[in-house]
Each structure stands twice: as C-alpha cells, then as structure tokens.
Amino acid sequence: MVRIILIRHGETQWNIEGRYQGQEDTHLSERGLRQGHMVAEGLKDTPIDVAISSPLERSYMTCSFCADLHGLPVLKDDRLLEINHGDWEGKLADEIEAKYPEEFHRWHTQPHTVTMPGQGGESLEDVRVRARAAFDDYVRKYDGKTVLVAAHDAVNKAIICDVLGLDMSHFWQIKQDNTCINVLECQDGVWRLVLLNSTNHMGYLFSGIEQKGL
After folding, report:
1. Is-contact 147 5, C-beta < 8 A?
2. Which terms are listed as keywords in the entry (predicted)?
3. How far is CA 83 from CA 116, 161, 214, in A?
4. Known active-site residue 152
C-alpha cells in the first residue's frame, strides 16, 4: 500500500486579492507562511518517507516546512504545476468575467468544458492526465511508504475526483482550503479517500473564507 498525504500551499497575496495565479510563481503571504508552519507542526508526528512538490514557490516552501521537520529533501515534479490559466493569469475575477463572460460562466458551471484561452492554457483534463501520471508513478516507486505531496487547488481537486472515479464535471464539489490535508491510499490498484480538506491544524487561524478555487 502507498499512502499519499496531499496538501495545498499556503495563502498568497493573489489569493487575498482574488487573482488567478495558475503557473505564475507567486509568494506566500505573511498569513501563508504561518499556515505553512502550522501544517508542518500538524504533520510532525506523522511518519513521512518522501516529500514531493510542485516547483512553484508557494507549494515548494509549504512542503519544505513539513519536510524539514522530518529531515527530508523536497523533490520537484512539474506534473504537479497548477493549471495554466492562459490569458487569465494575474487577472481579477471581475476582469475575466468582463472580457470572457461565456467562458467564465462555463468555468463555474461546466468546468470540464473549458480550455483556458491564450497560449499554454489548459483544460481540467490536461491537469488530470499529468497529475494521474505522477500519482501512478508514486504508487510504483514508493510501495509501502508514505509520500507527502504539495500541490495546488485545481491539481488537488482534479486528482481527488479522478481517483474516486468522478469526471471533471464534479470539480467544484471538492473544496481545498490553503494548507488543507488530504489522505489517499492505494492498494492493489484500488484508491480510497481517507481524509478530505482537513484544516484542524489551523486552529483559530482558519477563517473558512472561500478562496474562489484559484
């Protein structure tokens, strides 16, 4: 069996502003740094054998806080990069809605039908395919181990839907707060979800503010 502890990165300034980040390499806010240390403390007594992160700083730093308490290096995997939002990256939701009203509406109602406009823009299926390939590799490489994986909102939602046998039309039914903890296990090719979007480690700091799935 392989156990994967899947976490989302801490808060960024763009999360606060409501900007679509995608693959822009934004930094953790002061609150995000505190969240990163809190999730690390929350996992410090949990055995972890391997730590893997998206190469984007917000995820890599969040993962590093956790890995440091276990004396582990952090491996980078490009397949864990956030969805490429194309022309939407760096823009506020209101700006996107004004310029791309039809696509913006479908993104929030039929997300599986949207390919992000602009060069490099991805669909959720693109994200699902690369994230699933990564997770299948982890299952093959790390049998009997616990793997910490730090990624992003869309990546986490896509892989959770996928391993549960849900298509990407269910994307918005999965919630992922900053530094939430999910636990997935795979044994003999069968996946099960053990924990979803846990923020118990956050205590008073967790506000429950909706992050708009950015």
Report:
1. yes
2. Glycolysis, Hydrolase, Isomerase
3. 9, 15, 10
4. yes
**DSSP reduced 3-state for 162:** helix
CA distance 28 to 187: 35
Tell the residue number behind the tokens 């793997």, with chain if given.
147
* Catalytic, out of 85, 152, 170, 201: 152
Say if CB 8 and CB 178 are below 8 A apart: yes
The bridge status of strand 2-8 relative to strand 181-187 is antiparallel
* pLDDT tens digit sequence for 134-162: 999 999 999 999 999 999 999 999 999 99
pLDDT score at 207: 46
> Residue 175 class from Cβ within 10 Å (0-12 exposed, 13-18 middle, 19+ buried)?
middle
The residue type of 78 is D
How far apart CA 7 and CA 89 sit, in angstroms, is: 22
In whole angstroms, what is the distance from residue 13 CA to residue 11 CA? 7
As a whole number, the mean pLDDT across the chain is: 94
Q: Is 201 a catalytic residue?
A: no
Instruction: Flag whether the pTM goes above 0.90.
Output: yes
Q: Would you say 64 and 155 are in contact if contact means Cβ atoms under 8 Å apart?
A: no
87-126 in b/e form (b: 16+ CB < 10 A) is bbbebebeebeeebeebbeebeeebbebebeeeebbbbee
